[in-house]
Design a protein that fits this description.
The complex is a heterodimer of chains A (about 190) and B (about 220). Chain A has 2 domains: about 1-40, no CATH class; about 50-155, no CATH class. Helices cover about 35% and strands about 5% of the residues of chain A. Chain A contains 6 helices and 2 strands, in the order H-E-H-H-H-H-E-H. Chain A has helices at about 1-20, 50-55, 60-65, 70-90, 105-115, 145-150; strands spanning about 40-45, 115-120. Mean pLDDT of chain A is about 85; it is low at about 1-35. Chain B has one domain (about 1-215). In chain B, strand 1 and strand 2 form a beta hairpin. Chain B has helices spanning about 1-15, 65-70, 165-170; strands at about 40-45, 50-60, 75-85, 90-100, 100-110, 115-120, 130, 145, 150-155, 190-200, 205-215. Classes of the chains: A mainly alpha (about 190), B mainly beta (about 220). At the A-B interface, helix 1, strand 1, helix 2, helix 3 and strand 2 of A face strand 1, strand 2, strand 3, strand 6 and strand 9 of B.
Chain lengths: ~190, ~220
């Protein structure tokens, strides 16, 4: 298996270095100066949903969380997430207490601990827009208030109003309707 | 206004060096404040609704002055991971590697291996889309090839939050948010990579699980 990887690697390097066909060769590039991007790249940071590592992972585990593949995160971190959630929002420690999605502490943190963003390919993509839940993350989504509501807002978003909304509801610059969508820098 | 922004930028940097920042800005000791620090990740339907857009932001809280000299690290690959079979293991990746003023975009393509280590997955350079990295102060440069569009360069940080007040609450010096709140990220920039791909290339329909990684060349 290792040999296969090495052979494959060499083929890929050769491809990047030498297989540039004439019609898609940008000016200043070509078979002699096409960049060699080969190598082994090792993970340092990762992110799925906003603020998950920041809020739910204990300080001494943040680096480990960033290099744990998502398929292993639930087993490794769900109990830590639940403990931290119950410390942050003590109502969750009460038996049967849920958030507005109907999720209790164990269920909510089992969703969050696998830090991937669920994205629909069939229509509206939003973190939460009042109707659609976790179908993507759009630039204008007020994800922090959504997360605060799910952490502090209780069963119907009415609990702890002072903690459930940071009252910053939009970006400081308008987004673009067309690619690349993000506003130009300050 | 410009001076105010500069002062604000300096203040924010001072605060940021002391505390941990959301959404994923400066989230962990190894990457904190470095060139591999992912600040945010977005995935949404494009203006052309047949397309999906992936956004990775790195190196948060850049003041305008800091932005002018900010650069992508040529040793850091940004990798969008796509699971379209529901097991939270990537079936496809989109890799972005900067070199000599360009960002090279590879994929979406099945990775040669899943997990923590990555190698370049292009089989031929025909799969590689090179886009010039937009310099600070210049209009956005966009390259499109095979239905895939790409941008790389500084942008306004699209994240917004009263992080200072959140920190005060967590730190026990405040008991609630202010109304109105104050956007801690106002007037700051990030280094962005934006890639828009036809949905047909990543599964076509249904739900994908996706996440972004930064990986350093060894």
């Amino acid at each position: 298996m290792k040999t296969i990887k090495i052979i494959l690697g060499l083929t890929l390097i050769a491809g990047l270095l030498f297989n540039c066909s004439a019609d898609d060769t940008p000016k200043g590039e070509g078979i002699y100066n096409n960049p060699n991007l080969s190598g082994i790249y090792v993970q340092e940071d990762q992110m799925g949903r906003p603020a998950v590592n920041t809020v739910f992972v204990s300080s001494d585990s943040k680096d480990m969380f960033n290099v744990t593949v998502p398929s292993d995160q639930n087993a490794a971190f769900q109990s830590m997430f639940q403990a931290n959630l119950e410390a942050l929002s003590p109502a969750y420690a009460n038996n049967g207490d849920t958030n507005a999605l109907g999720l209790d502490a164990a269920t909510f943190t089992s969703v969050l601990a696998t830090d991937v963003l669920n994205v629909s390919l069939d229509g509206t993509t939003t973190f939460y827009d009042g109707t659609n839940v976790l179908t993507g993350r759009a630039l204008a989504d007020d994800v922090i208030t959504v997360e605060l509501l799910l952490i502090f807002g209780g069963e119907d978003f009415t609990e702890n109003p002072g903690l459930s909304n940071d009252n910053v509801d939009a970006n400081d610059k308008p987004f673009l309707t067309s690619f690349p969508y993000l506003a130009s820098p300050w | 206004m410009k001076n105010f922004k500069k002062i604000l930028g300096v203040g924010i940097l001072a605060v940021a060096s002391l505390i941990v920042i959301a959404a994923d800005h400066i989230d962990a000791p190894v990457v904190q404040g470095g060139t591999s620090d992912i600040t945010d990740f977005y995935a949404f339907q494009g203006e052309n609704t047949n397309n999906l857009v992936f956004v990775a932001n790195l190196q948060g809280l850049l003041s305008p002055t800091a932005t002018a000299s900010a650069a992508f690290d040529e040793d850091v690959m940004i990798e969008f991971n796509i699971d379209n079979t529901g097991d939270n293991i990537e079936d496809l990746v989109i890799q972005a590697v900067p070199r000599n003023g360009k960002m090279y975009i590879i994929g979406p393509v099945a990775p040669s291996q899943t997990g923590i280590n990555s190698t370049i997955t292009a089989e031929t350079s025909k799969d590689v889309l090179g886009v010039k990295i937009t310099s600070y102060g210049m209009d956005a440069m966009v390259e499109t090839k095979n239905g895939i569009s790409a941008f790389a360069g500084p942008r306004d940080d699209p994240f917004f939050m009263d992080f200072a007040q959140y920190s005060a609450i967590i730190g026990g010096t405040a008991t609630s948010f202010n109304n109105p709140g104050s956007d801690t990220f106002a007037g700051t920039n990030v280094m962005s990579v934006v890639v828009e791909v036809p949905k047909a290339m990543i599964g076509g329909s249904g739900t994908i699980n996706t996440w972004v990684e930064s990986k350093r060349k060894q």
